[in-house]
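FIELD: query
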Amino acid sequence: MTTYILRRIFYAIPILIGVNLLTFTLFFVVNSADDIARMHLGNKHVKQTDIESWKASHGYDKPLLFNQNAAGINSITDTIFYQKSARLFVFDFGRSDLDRNIGQDIQTRMWPSLAIAAPTLLIGLATNITFALLLTFFRATRLDTAGVFLCVVLMSISGLFYIIGGQYLIGKIFQWVPISGYDSGTDALKFIILPVLIGVVSGIGSGARLYRTLFIEELGKDYIRMARAKGISELRVLFRHVLKNAMIPILTGIVVILPMLFMGSLLMESFFAIPGLGSYTIDAINDQDFATVRAMVFLGAVLYIIGLVLTDISYTFADPRVRLS
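FIELD: result
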């Protein structure tokens, strides 16, 4: 078990290095430091002296990979790659191009994102699996047909419609909860109810339809026929056999969602004015704060890799045979 986990973690290291190198190339090779300075100064005819002054104050005046003017180890550490990219491996995010502490901002903003994403994931997963099991139990009936039709309709609706429609109907017409904003402590509940509800409802169509397909596929296998031949009830077949054996593809789908627990939803947080990491990333893009964008891209890659490792570990509980692979 330990060897399996260590092997998965070892496989993730080169992926993370590759993401860091690709990000560095996109931000500093495709776009030069002069281009970044010119974007922030906001003037096409800005003087070169102003560009050099901005680069010096933000640490962009150093060589990219190797500093010939420095001695010893400083020839490597006194470079843009080391100070802007290599330090990300120890989660030293530094300061943004707007002179903000990126690490402190992330620590502050991850809690609102987590407060919305965690219940959305858990409630949505339970809702989708329950609905899919219901459709599977009544497969090939009118209820199943109506449920699949509802899933297709829900999948066809844009996410913006759920957000705007939910704000208008629940927040403005019925005035049950605030339309936007956020507060700390228990007062935050009234602000996260609507985003969580919208997140769950908008995911029912694709989630339930996918899980129903997985469950029906399991029902056609030989071990299900053997269980039925032994007289096991249909409910027991669904919950004890089908659900358990369909957990691996379900867990695989959760990998995509796990980074959202901390990264937040870009649209949801922007529309509901929630100070999470999603809106933080949008603000950084709008402000052309490339240091913050780089940090968020790297953090997203780390969280995705952690999600992959956790999913591989969860496979060992869903199917012990995975431990031998």
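FIELD: remark
The chain has a mean pLDDT of 83.
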